[in-house]
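Human:
Care to share another protein and its fold?

Assistant:
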Amino acid sequence: MSPAPPGFTTRQRGRRWVLSRNTDLDDLEELAEGVPAPLPGLVTLGADDRGARVLLDLEEAGLACIGGDRDLARQLLFAAATELATSPYGEFYSLVLVGFGAGLAPLERVRVVASIEEVIDDLERDAAEIGRLLEDHQLGSTLEGRMTGVAVDAWAPTLVLCAKRPPARLAHRLTDLIDRAGNGGVGVLVAGEMATAAVSLEIADGLLEVVPMGVSVVPQTLSAEEEANVGELLEMVFDEPGPDDEARSWSEDHEVDLLWPEVVTAPADEEGDVEALDVDEWVSATTEADGKCWASTVATATEEIDEEVAEQPGVLVGVLGPIEITGGAAVIDRGKSIELVAYLATHRTSPVDAAVLMEALWPGKAKTTSTLNTTTTARTCLGKDLGGALYLPRIPGGGARLYRLSDLVRLDYEIFLVRVRRAAGQEGPEAIATLRSALSLVRGRPFEVLGRGYEWAFVGLATRMAEDVADGAHRMATLCLAAGDPEGARWAAQQGLLASEGNEQLFRDRMSAEALSGNRAGVRAVMEDLTTFVDAEEPYGSIHPDTVAHFKELTAAAAR
């Protein structure tokens, strides 16, 4: 038997935990801090003749089956699925529904599959991992792991509910993997008789008998009509958009170091020499045919780079704009779980200690339980790679709790930097193509989120990302201007301004692009955009003298 949690005493040879009625509520709350749900696999079977609920611990049972009346077995199974899908302890387990439950699929902890064959490989890997962790930590069960606080977030079980008995070969694999897991980690409930089941539930004459205990209950069921109503209700809820109250709005209080003008050069001549040219000379020296040829070369190279990256498997975390996580098993709806993934994706040098992670996500008010819930949700929704490894793996760390993401979880900012560095060693169309592919990753201000959170990102990190984007955008604009490609320069500057609003170097690049197109009104329009921005953001601010000089030079040249 597993030891009782702190504050409890054991009775009946460890089968019962007892808490004194005189326990102070504040003390009880302190005792509960950091302790996960001890028995997350509990599910209601029904009520006895006294009206008391009778529950089954699916994780402890390992493999349970429901025999007898097929219709009532199906109704009991769906009631159990609905309870587990909506339980407050659900963040401590993963729930797989086989052959039914499509209406519950919108819930983040639920995975619906057509056949047990779709998940049997994952279940075997999970069971093997749980068994290894129990052996490594010399623990008798997952319950003991939760109670002793050892690798506490590693003991989230997978609960599987099957609408029909699996074929014999898969039934044997189910039995074997549960045996390999040891005590806990996987719990399976099947509608249909199975000779290898540790717990058999028989339904007859409207009653459910728990065979090994000789207990009869009125089963908890949901009819086919009620099942349809649940699905319709969830469909309405998840079709209705709503704000995420754990996100954070962008703070406009940060400072961005503006990039002042550099000498812009024309393409090299046949001998490799480069000569500085003014805008009027670019216009007269660049023909329309040259521009089309150059643009075609850049477009082809850009497509090759993007296709190469798109083919790479794994999860992509996007922070260059609104936070996006793509490629996982399910959409992460929990705001703090999204922030956790973003934090780990931007802190890759070494595993992150739980205390550091908690303080980052909940400055000054972190709770261990919150971290466990948040981590379990993130781990479940990210899922596994093609090889079956978790994108958010469980890391054995002795008494420490450590977190890191798999190497197959990519960050758009890292990809951006790799491409910009690659472009530094390239020239002409090749460099422009690489920079275009980098800037295509930019969707807005770094960590552009609504609501609260992400304080850790707004202390330097977001500003540095914005500066790097502005640098890359200015370099591409410079190359495009030198090549007589005003459209490319305009696009580069606009992409940079998505991340670094108010960056005057990029506004100057926009002016140069308009001048290169012979659009004097466009130059003035860019200046008006900048003036409007400065007036809105800094009522007592002023435009940098270099920008004013650049504007005057371009408009004067156009007037000649």
